[in-house]
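Narrative progress, year one. The postdoctoral researcher (J.K.) led the effort to move from monomer predictions toward full complexes, under supervision of the PI. The following entry was the first complex the group processed end to end, covering 1441 residues in total.
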Amino acid sequence: MAVRALEADLEPAHPGVLVDPDAIVRPVLSVGPSFKRWAIAMAAVVAWALFAWIWQLWRGLGVTGLGRPVYWGLYITNFVFFIGVSHAGTLISAILRIVHAEWRRSITRMAEVITVLVLFFGVGNILLDLGRPDRALNVITHPHFRSPLLWDVMSISVYLMASSIYLYLPLIPDIALLRDRVSGWRHGFYRRLALGWAGTPRQIHLLERAIGAMAIIVIPIAVSVHTVVSWVFAMTIQPMWHSTIFGPYFVVGAIFSGIAAIITAMVIVRKVYGLERYLQPVHFNNLGILLLVMSCLWLYFTFAEHITVWYGQEPTELSVFDARLFGRFAPFFWAMFLFCFVVPFAILANPRTRTIKGTLIASISVNLGMWLERFTIVVPSLSNPRVPIHTFLYAPSWVEWSLMAGCFAAFTLLYMGFTKLFPIISIWELQAAEAEAAGWMALVAGEGDEPAGPGANGEASAATEPALAGGWR
Amino acid sequence: MARWGLVVDLDRCTGCQACVIACKHENNVPFSTPASSAAGRLMTWIQLVAVEMPGRDHRVPLPLMCQQCDRPPCTDVCPTSATYLSTDGIVAQVYARCIGCRYCTNACPYVVKVFNWTPPEWPASMQGMMNPDVSVRPKGVVEKCTFCHHRLMIARERAKAEGRELASEDYVPACVQTCPAEALTFGDLDDQHSAVAAAAASPRAFQWMEELGTKPKVIYLREGE
Amino acid sequence: MSDIISRRDFLFYGGATIAGVTLGELGRRQLARADERAAAWRPRGVETWATSVCRECAAGCGVRARLADDVPVKLEGNPLCPIGRGRLCAKGQAALESYFDPDRLVGPARQAGSRSAPRWERVSWDAGCRLLASQLGGHGADVIAFAFDEHGPLADAWSHFWSSLGARLVWTHGATAERLTPAVAALTGAKACPLFDLERATHVLSFGAPLVEDWLSPVWTQRSFGRFRRTAGRPRGRLVQVDARQSLTARKADESLILSAEQQIVLAYAIASVLLRENRVNRTAIDAIGGDLAAFENAIVARYSPDDSAAATGVPVVTILRMARELTATPQPLVTVATDAPRPLVDATLALNALIGAIDHPGGLFGKIVNGAERSADAATVLGDIAAGRIRPRVVAFHDAAALRSVHAPPDPSTYLASVPFIVSFSPYLDESCAVADLVLPLDTPLESWHAVVPAPAIGGETIALARPAVARRLESRDLGSILRAVARAVGGDALTAFPWSSSEGIVREEVARLQRLRRGGLYSEAYEMDWLEQLERGGWWVGDATSDRDFITSALEKGGWIDPYFEPGLLSQSAREQGGLNFPVPPAIHGIPLAAARDEERAVGTTGQADAPPANEGFPLRLTVFTPAVVSLAGNQNVPGLFELLGQPEGLPWRPWVEVGHETAARFRIANGETVQIESPSGRIHAVAVLVEGLPEGTVSMAFVPASSAEARWTRTIDADVRRLCGADGFSTPCHVRIARL
């Protein structure tokens, strides 16, 4: 029995899957009709958003639905949302790397790409929100270090750099692999990016050292980023922004929406690029559990945030509280509650529904819910100022919606583009795991189970082998 | 250095809004339209708001302008130092440096900073109406009450030209100058002999939202005995 | 000769059809050219100040215009002016925008089409004046000339001109105390304008007087209110406001009661009856003047018993008693009244002032004789007569749009003035009067004008505001004197001999020369100098401005006016004594108020049963109270964006007329705050924003009156909810009932 338990424990995350680099590389080098259709569609949305943006630059922010006192709206909501989603990658992959979760190997890259790309849109939304984007560099030429917005600029820049490096380092061996397989412009492109990678043990050692170091460095940076984003609000004395738990609350929300974003991306990539071999139910199951935990944590923070306000009955805070829970913003608030907790909890708490489809539904729900959460943080506080001035019901204009759609479309487009330049799954890491597993298998060889066949029937294998769920090592 | 302050006697204030128009003309603040004012884009550096006051049955009109805090929440958060507490104690806004992030507008608990959502527009016939002492703000920047700071600059120059010290009486913002009910008193709060210091010492004096620790230099005198 | 359209404009508008050029369009086309000249950038720097007079209402406050390179950039009060004392109200400040009004008429124009299908042609001044003269010739008796009620040499010239033609002069009264003159005459026999010494009063009971809004001379009243509230060394003045709605004054008051006009009359008499009953009247003061107090006592004490009055007004008996006692427990009480209050209410409040000894008492009620002809004809009544076909004038002249803008005037002048063959407007703005005119002869705007105005009466001596044009003409407008002279010359005969002045400048200079010869008073000067002057005059001394004629004129026009500060109180009591004592009013029968004692009387004479008749307002359950926001400009230009931004503040409803609804009424009709609602009466319907207010009795709504302009001026045309559309043929003189529904 002991042996079998050990065996189960040591089971590699990708039992018996022989890593087939060709299968992963093939979609990188070929462009199908479906890809083109999507790319054109997304490019059209981006083009429309560009038009909207030029319109806004020309006419000023008057083309938005903003006004006094609702000075911030959709753009800042999107900024917080995108920065939140950016925690998908780096933080999660770094944590999983540090704890040596074997099942992470096939998903880390997918997640890290989300981080890097989405950060641009987070920053981009700030630029969209500026009245004078032409003067954006004033934050560098005339910095004022007491401004949380400047802290944001700094931490996001550092995060962007760190996560770019953290994305790039594990890419090097795969770029080298591609370099060796292609010719033409791609060869030159990969050759430059591969930095002379030859896969020597010294190089491997250095790379692993560097990745390990980055994984540790990137965690505090990531935490700081979302903490500082929350401080943009919490450092003011505005009702229901001025909260001590906003830092951890935003970090939890960020990880929450980040995981949801990864799951959503994984399902799509898996389906589109036929990577069912590498993205197996176990991944969705594990991430689903993680999402469930975060959902509960989110509920805890949300509850703590609101119960204190309600119990305190401080009038200015209460006016925002009432507007959020029972007033104009109640539909958004309760939809958020439904999407962030009720739906994911109902699906993910039950192992039977914690399937790929189930986690996908839960993830989309969480992403919607977290966007609504950002909205219900930004807008109600501004709509209920302390002074009794005339307020209005903020409704985003077509320009704002267009630019939001443009951000999502541009993100999709860039993500698609990335998959056509680099393998979306870390080939060398899977190979390393295989090698490692082979070593272990050799150790415990004998009466070991026959590995499950490679292939399309991943869901069935998850159902028949529940032991795979425990991938933590 | 003088500590310029404004005392608003709510008992005297009639809510006639002469100050509002005086400010608008003095500072080249653009007009709104019915649509823009409904959308919350009314440009005004001073406006009348109805405030609940202890001991009053009805919400009373109160002229609200930048409170010129000694500890302004808006200046801390500005990422480019475009808004700062000047040496005159006036919360200044450098229009040429403002990037229009509107963080200061959101940080201000009095919501007295306004943003130029659109390029400022006047009918062609009104171009000549602009006060040459005050710059017209471009679209995309935040603006606010400056206590008619340009009047201070001019008064200072005039005093210098006349070879004397600046007297408190040399400098009066446009709102104070026009107030028909004589409800506004302006001057140096640190000058113990000034009318404004005497008014500020009234037992009726209060600073709005003083509990927030903003230390405004606009002091209201509540109604009633 | 007419230059319909210049070659350049023709090229510019080449593709467009020229037929149906509206007045606004005509103005804008011409203006576009004028602005090109102005827009040429030049460095601004030379700052100058010029004296002028505010003409936005009858108060005549002194103005100092700040000019940057001869272009006005800001208006301030003239510190030497005894009325404004360096201050200006919102309307006065906004007058600067009138000068720059983009829709100002560029010059004289005539209607070449019809009023329904307008086609405007520019005409020369000469042609315009001759056209008017040809219409006037021989029809003097069929001419009506409307003007805003102002006094002074220029207004006299206006009336002189029309009287010499035999035309009828009609005046539109502002919120000045002149409307109260008949009631003062009835009580004291003095044909005097009442002056309320608000500044020195210690306790004010106000019946609907909008003290903090627009009452009498606004800046003067506002300052008085401020000093009434707070003056060092004096207790704070206490204000009790009885009003038809929760007005700004009611909100500023220490105590406010919301009552209908009829109930206010009952309350006023009830307080009087308590004063008499409890023997709290100031007998010393009354005995000094005389009057049949006993008869008055008999007339009201039984009729307005506290219980009956409480039942009729809903004001608790204890409150009525307390209000009466408070009035007499203060050294300087004063009772004020709205200038447009119904006559019985004015009578009652003046009687109250007599009972508490406020007549000719500091902080009380004074009187001042207003020079000039009787000006009782009210514009709204005359317009109503025209609308009803009772009078059929051949020519109507509008000096300004005040008559058409009055709350009592019938709405939509284009329909009821259609029967008038010829209408001329002298207004410089694209306003209501131009919209109905066949000929426009635009006057200079106040900043471009000569001024010689007698300010609306206020406590203090005799004042005349004087000024020369502060700025050069921006457009091809003319001064009143020149226009009237040109028309008189074209008419010829008596008209020409009756109008000897060649221009407004001549009229003003003649007036200044007259003042110099008066050998009393002096030019506007610092307050302490004026006190000195008054002391000297009291002592029988006169210190003339010992300068040459020329210097005197220059100085007068620069300082902004002439004043004889000597003011002797006592006119009212003296006049009353001469007529044998105060003539207390006879309490009226009040429509719709169930006073028990009054009912008994009626029953005795057999007039019962009327109260039980079914109300005529079937289906229209709400009584409408109409009020005019302070920013509505009667005399001046309404096309001023600055004022529309102030409309409805501090409730945060700029630019829109609003309807005030009590919380109970709102709940009954399911109306939310800020919602657009439809208000409908048997006569019409309008839309307005609903504002939920405290204190408005159930069954009552109150609506802001902002005159809707059918003209095309760019800002006024956005205001279209004119509450006058709801009233019947007789205006708001009878209660108007409405129903209200959300859209």
